[in-house]
Write a structure and sequence with these properties.
- The protein is an alpha/beta fold.
- Helix content is 44%, strand content 16%.
- The longest helix is centred in the middle third of the chain and has 25 residues.
- The mean pLDDT is 92.
- It comes from Draconibacterium orientale.
């Protein structure tokens, strides 16, 4: 079932009644409601939003990724359940016990999929992609010679020109990319939780201060879907530094973007569930290949 994404940017009160998320004005007037079970992502972007603890409990029960934005209106934290799978402890043990060769093989698959999808986006936009396609064929176990970094330099130049520098604090469309990647990261973390995996334990990323290393790993092949939306926004609103509601609304459409995975097309949030479920099976020794999307 395709889950809904809700974005709230006014000082409303959020509560629960009959398993429905209720959005009310401070005076008590009900503005809208939605079944919690239908929600996949709830983005809260106002410092005076308040909510009941009963609602928080219900959001957690249905594995809703509740994303909180900071004073700069950028996603800064999220609420995820600690118990989202019936055999979670077993999956945790398999994940922790994963061998180094397995993790290196999984990372090789991840970077191959990422570079191929970057090349496919360049093809779609009528830009040169042959170098990336060749790089994808040369990636070694664990990407030991960092072909990912080499591919990135070629990719960003081909996609946005020689003057563009991918930097968190850089010129547009870096702002669109930043917002989109944070949303994607939250979506991956939600899917990992739903598949019974611990987002902290990465297959490649390792950082004592990062609680979402595995999410940062698994999101890599999905980044071109963000890049496409960011490029489109950059064409519509060139040189825009401030993120307005209409920009965020377009970036939130990422969650329902059509993604080809296997022989079918699925909304991105459904495709992510397939990817993370396949990763759980890899850790359990039931298969050796992660199911990633093919951009197109």
């Amino acid at each position: 079932m395709l889950k809904r994404t809700l974005f709230i940017s006014n000082p409303y009160y959020l509560s629960l009644k009959n398993k429905q998320l209720q959005v009310s004005e401070r005076g008590g007037m009900l503005l809208k409601s939605a079944p919690v079970e239908d929600i996949g992502f709830l983005v809260l972007d106002h410092p005076q939003i308040s909510f009941s603890m009963k609602l928080v409990e219900e959001l957690s029960e249905y594995n809703v990724a509740t994303v909180f934005c900071n004073s700069k209106h950028m996603p800064s934290s999220m609420l995820l359940p600690l118990d989202a799978h019936h055999i979670q402890s077993e999956l945790f043990r398999a994940q922790i016990a994963a061998s180094e060769p397995l993790k290196k093989n999984l990372w090789k698959q991840t970077i191959e999929a990422k570079v191929k999808n970057q090349a496919a986006l360049l093809d779609k936009l009528g830009k040169k992609s042959l170098q990336l396609k060749n790089i994808a064929k040369t990636i070694k176990s664990g990407d030991s010679d960092n072909r990912e970094g080499f591919a990135a330099r070629i990719y960003w130049t081909a996609l946005l020109g020689k003057e563009f520098i991918r930097d968190r604090y850089g010129a547009p469309p870096n702002n669109f990319l930043n917002y989109g990647y944070i949303l994607l990261r939250s979506a991956v973390a939600r899917s990992l939780a739903g598949s019974g995996l611990l987002a902290t334990l990465g297959i490649h990323h390792r950082n004592r201060y990062n609680a979402f290393c595995l999410a940062d790993d698994i999101m890599e092949p999905y980044r071109p879907y963000v890049d496409e939306i960011a490029c489109d926004l950059d064409e519509k609103y060139p040189g825009t530094f401030a993120l307005e509601k209409e920009h965020k609304a377009e970036l939130l459409q990422l969650m329902t973007a059509d993604v080809k995975i296997g022989d079918n097309k699925r909304p991105l949030m459904v495709a992510l569930s397939q990817t993370t479920a396949s990763l759980a099976r890899c850790f359990a020794g039931e298969q050796r290949k992660i199911i990633y999307p093919v951009f197109g």
